[in-house]
């Protein structure tokens, strides 16, 4: 049985968008697990996603006391045999793989945010690093984005970077 995981980060509602884009809400309602790597900004975004499904999330640097009271700085879960960790910031891109290998030795996939830049790499130790970008604030990227991950029997079976239209 496969597990569908939606990866999002840096939603920044209502600062960068008034609400979650329709594509994000639709994908969240179809996902088995919703992973959010921080910078929700408003607690209502967490409430909305929790109403749509199971959420694994962390707080980010733009999240205030209410979100920090509800969410950890680092979240971990084993999903369909894959050990997943979530954190908002990983620091500079230079040296990221080495630093994350040291910080997350018992992890298969690390989901992070902060930069709004989609990222998919594998470290020397085999740790998959994923940043879904932002579905609401593309910054210097060509499009707003999210990722859809499919897990099956302890492995990543597919990963899609999905452009998100904002209205």
TrEMBL record:
Domain Calcineurin-like phosphoesterase: 4-152
Cofactor: a divalent metal cation
Key words, A-Z: Metal-binding
Coiled-coil regions listed: none
Transmembrane segments: none
Keyword Transmembrane: no
InterPro entries associated with the record: Calcineurin-like_PHP_lpxH, Metallo-depent_PP-like, Phosphodiesterase_MJ0936/Vps29
EC numbers, comma separated: 3.1.4.-
Pfam families: Metallophos_2
Record bears the keyword Acyltransferase: no
SUPFAM superfamilies xref list: Metallo-dependent phosphatases (SSF56300)
Family under the similarity heading: Belongs to the metallophosphoesterase superfamily. YfcE family.
Protein name: Phosphoesterase
The organism of origin for this protein: Microbacterium mcarthurae
Taxonomic lineage: Bacteria, Bacillati, Actinomycetota, Actinomycetes, Micrococcales
């Amino acid at each position: 049985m496969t597990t569908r995981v939606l990866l999002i980060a840096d939603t920044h509602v209502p600062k960068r968008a008034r609400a979650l884009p329709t594509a994000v809400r639709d994908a969240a309602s179809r996902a088995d697990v919703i992973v959010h790597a921080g910078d929700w900004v408003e607690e209502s975004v967490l409430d909305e996603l929790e109403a749509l499904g199971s959420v694994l999330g962390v707080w980010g640097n733009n999240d205030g006391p209410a979100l920090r009271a509800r969410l950890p700085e680092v979240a971990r879960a084993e999903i369909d045999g894959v050990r997943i960790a979530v954190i908002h910031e990983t620091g500079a891109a230079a040296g990221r793989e080495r630093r994350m290998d040291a910080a997350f030795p018992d992890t298969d996939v690390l989901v992070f945010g902060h930069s709004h830049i989609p990222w998919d790499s594998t470290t020397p130790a085999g740790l998959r690093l994923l940043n879904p970008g932002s579905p609401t604030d593309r910054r210097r990227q060509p499009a707003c984005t999210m990722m859809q991950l499919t897990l099956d029997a302890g492995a990543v079976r597919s990963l899609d970077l999905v452009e998100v239209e904002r209205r």
